[in-house]
């Protein structure tokens, strides 16, 4: 097989890595594509998202061969994995006559930012209840919160646990319904349509198969940040098509959620939506809980280092809440020899990047401002930089 050139630079390194075979059931692929195509859809995302070679990162880590599936490049208000999901979910909601959306999640939520943007595109009212996860620091109008406001969402900050947050969103939806509005209650309060969200990631797996095939290459494993719908969709499509890949996920919630059970249930709901005969069992889901650190939204030193490593080697920005923790997990497994240097890993970059603007302290960037104000040369990670 000739050496493969992917987007980005190609190198001796890339050529020297053995190629796995791309094996899947062709007839089932057509069936899956037809089932996805049959669902109502509104257009929101720039698709297909790019597949880039991350050769300098691969080299810095001493293998494996890493490709980035750029789901951060879906285009809507700085992109992310949720945009494709809203193509399906909001199509169903608008067909049902919805005119206002109520949703709740953490202050820097990637989900809510993309939802605010999708509502703006579709002319829907957007009401967001935002849970503070980092105390007063979450009052700062930065990152996702800044964008939610620019995108025209009506927002309110909230303190309390996830259950109380969902109740608050239900009450807000009820209040609007009393005003005579047709309301779509989204996550976190409504979990009845998570299968439809997951279908969007069945589509990603299909897209990836086409991209690898076009480039006459293949992969061994997908690596992803997820605690539910994203990995669930990949898992379902993967099993339905004859399991071409091992799929490894990293949860940002630690052990707060039984992700194996949650994902298998969501995958099976997605199978119902698509009319597929496949059942995903909890034990078939590989999802690591140990990279979340002190909890959701709380930065870890390993994730910060991973974020910097990727930025410096690939010019690609991860986010501190999801993707940097996923990358920290991948790096740990490489160092432990559990991901071998001969593998090809597709790292699915699910987005969330605007959150970096809300994490200058955790990323040790705020501390540089006094040196900058004195006109000194400054570089992250260097004590003093000669002029
Ligand atoms: C940046 C980013 N990556 C990954 C995910 C994973 O999504 P899920 O847990 O729904 O699979 C999210 C969810 O909000 C996210 O914001």
List the helices and strands and how they pair.
Blueprint: H1 12-16, H2 26-37, E1 51-53, H3 55-61, E2 65-70, H4 82-95, E3 100-106, H5 110-122, E4 125-131, H6 143-150, E5 154-158, H7 162-178, E6 183-185, H8 194-214, E7 221-225, H9 229-240, E8 246-250, H10 259-274, E9 286-288, H11 301-314, H12 323-335, E10 344-349, H13 369-373
Parallel strand pairs: 2-10, 3-4, 3-6, 4-5, 7-8, 7-10, 8-9
Antiparallel strand pairs: 1-2
Helix pairs in contact: 2-8, 3-11, 4-5, 4-8, 5-6, 8-9, 8-10, 9-10, 11-12
Structural class: alpha/beta
Number of helices: 13
Q: Give helix and strand order, one letter per element, not per position.
A: HHEHEHEHEHEHEHEHEHEHHEH
Into how many domains do the coordinates divide? Answer: 2
Percent range for β-strand residues: 5-15%
Q: How would a crystallographer describe the biggest sheet?
A: 6 strands, mixed
How widely separated are the two ends? Answer: 49 Å
CATH topology of the largest domain: Rossmann fold
CA gyration radius, whole angstroms:
21 Å
Principal-axis shape = globular
CATH class of the largest domain: Alpha Beta
- Per DSSP E runs of 2 or more residues, the count of β-strands stands at 10
Bound molecules: pyridoxal-5'-phosphate
Secondary-structure arrangement, i.e. CATH architecture of the largest domain: 3-Layer(aba) Sandwich
Strand order of the largest sheet: 1-2-10-7-8-9
- Overall average residue pLDDT: 93
As residue ranges, the low-confidence spans are 1-16
- Helical fraction: 40-55%
């Amino acid at each position: 097989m000739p050496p493969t050139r992917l987007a980005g630079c190609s190198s001796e390194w890339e050529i020297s890595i053995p190629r796995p075979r791309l094996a899947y059931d062709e007839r089932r692929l057509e069936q899956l594509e037809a089932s996805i195509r049959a669902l109502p859809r509104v257009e929101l995302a720039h698709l297909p998202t790019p597949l880039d070679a991350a050769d300098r990162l691969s080299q810095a880590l001493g293998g494996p061969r890493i490709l980035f599936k750029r789901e951060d490049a879906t285009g809507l208000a700085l992109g992310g994995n949720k945009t494709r999901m809203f193509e399906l979910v909001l199509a169903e909601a608008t067909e049902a006559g919805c005119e206002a959306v109520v949703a709740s999640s953490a202050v820097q939520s990637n989900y809510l930012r993309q939802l605010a943007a999708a509502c703006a595109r579709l002319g829907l009212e957007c009401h967001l209840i935002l849970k503070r996860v980092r105390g007063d620091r979450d009052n700062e109008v930065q990152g996702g919160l800044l964008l939610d406001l620019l995108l025209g969402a009506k927002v309110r900050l909230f303190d309390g646990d996830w259950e109380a947050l969902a109740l608050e969103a239900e009450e807000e939806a009820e209040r609007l319904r009393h005003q005579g509005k047709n309301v779509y209650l989204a996550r976190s309060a409504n979990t009845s349509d998570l299968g439809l969200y997951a279908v969007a990631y069945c589509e990603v797996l299909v897209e990836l198969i086409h991209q690898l095939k076009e480039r006459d290459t293949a992969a061994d494993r997908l690596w992803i940040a997820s605690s539910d719908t994203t990995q669930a969709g990949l898992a379902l499509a993967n099993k339905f098509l004859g399991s071409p890949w091992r799929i490894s996920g990293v949860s940002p919630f630690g052990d707060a959620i039984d992700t194996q059970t949650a994902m298998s249930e969501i995958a099976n709901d997605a199978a119902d939506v698509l009319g597929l005969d496949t059942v995903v069992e909890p034990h078939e889901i590989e999802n690591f809980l140990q990279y979340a650190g002190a909890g959701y939204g709380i930065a870890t030193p390993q994730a910060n280092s991973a974020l910097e490593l990727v930025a410096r080697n690939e010019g690609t920005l991860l986010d501190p809440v999801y993707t940097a923790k996923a990358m920290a997990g991948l790096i740990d497994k490489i160092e432990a020899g559990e991901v071998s240097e001969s593998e090809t890993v597709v790292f699915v970059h699910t987005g969330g990047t605007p959150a970096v603007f809300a994490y200058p302290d955790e990323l040790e960037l705020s501390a540089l401002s006094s040196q900058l104000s004195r006109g000194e040369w400054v570089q992250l990670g260097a004590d003093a930089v000669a002029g």
